[in-house]
Amino acid sequence: MTLMIEFVLQGFSELPRLRLPLFRCFFSLYTVAASLQSPMYFFLCNLAAMDIVCTSSVLPKALVGLAFEENTISFPGCMAQLFFLTWSASSELLLLTAMAYDRYVAICRPLHYSWRMSPRLCQSLALGVWAVCALNGSLHAGLMTRLSFCGPNIIAHFFCEIPPLLLLSCSPTLVNSIMTVLADAFYGVLNFLLTLVSYGCIVASILRMRSAAGRRRAFSTCSSHLLVVSVYYSAVFCAYISPASSYSPERSKVSAVLYTMLSPTLNPIVYSLRNTEVKHALGRLVQALLCPEVRGLPP
Q: How confident is the model at residue 157 (pLDDT cuts 50, 70, 90)?
């Protein structure tokens, strides 16, 4: 049974001089991440939706903490944040794998693309991703509610995530740790290996092409996805692929900024760099950073 009724998010309290600059930066990233989600393709649409869920589950509370130094969060609110963050992060990993397979079929099996990636199959894949990852988020949040928190209530992070919460529990956390390792192995390691296999086949197929123009065209169709995968997996591995006992708050905060703020902002930019809407949004971002009074931000 849980004894703690609220937690205190440590946030960026160790950097008081950077509080307002961080607020302006995070607010701008959140605005751009939420306003650029008009993708052209089906999986990009799902990825954009999960980007919005990810940023919306973390950044509003982080912005409140930076602007008003209000860092308390209720236990139910913490569990809700944990669920939505776990749901969106695991969904993005599966969606990136599905997109890698899509690029593999498009480049290595172009004649089979229409039936291998049919609309019904894509819809089934997306529905399966959302359902499986929602179950994953519910499982981790449910296991966390079974723990007792009767000691310190300061979370060494700017949002609720599994490793720092486990360190605060005064009851056994073996089951939680095992489920976390299994989830890391499936969502992180296995999907990363599947993505590597897909791109290994893609690279081999590109190198066999005789035309230099054909090689450039084939590479351009997957370079954006490869960049997004590299950034996202680097942040996730740094934040999660390690035991809770070796948890580092500083390292985790930096990694979390990458996959909860920077990556959702970069995704639509990387995929739609020539889009007029993206150019306007980037202009608004630069204007907000250079002239915060335009958006009513603290000077």
A: confident
8 bridge partner residues = 72, 154
CA angle 171, 54, 295 (to 5 degrees): 125
Residue 64, number of CB atoms within 10 A of its CB? 16
Q: What is the pLDDT of residue 23?
A: 79
What is the pTM (predicted TM-score) of this model?
0.77
Is residue 168 a contact partner of residue 118, using CB atoms and an 8 Å limit?
A: no
Paired sense of beta strands 154-155 and 6-9, if any: parallel
Q: What pLDDT score was predicted for residue 130?
A: 93
Among candidate residues 135, 224, 247, the one with its CA nearest the CA of residue 187: 135
Q: What is the DSSP letter of 11?
A: T
* Cα–Cα distance measured from residue 176 to residue 48, given in angstroms and rounded to the nearest whole number: 29
Give the helix/strand (H/E) hosting 62: helix 42-68
Q: What's the length of the chain?
A: 299
Residue type, 297: L
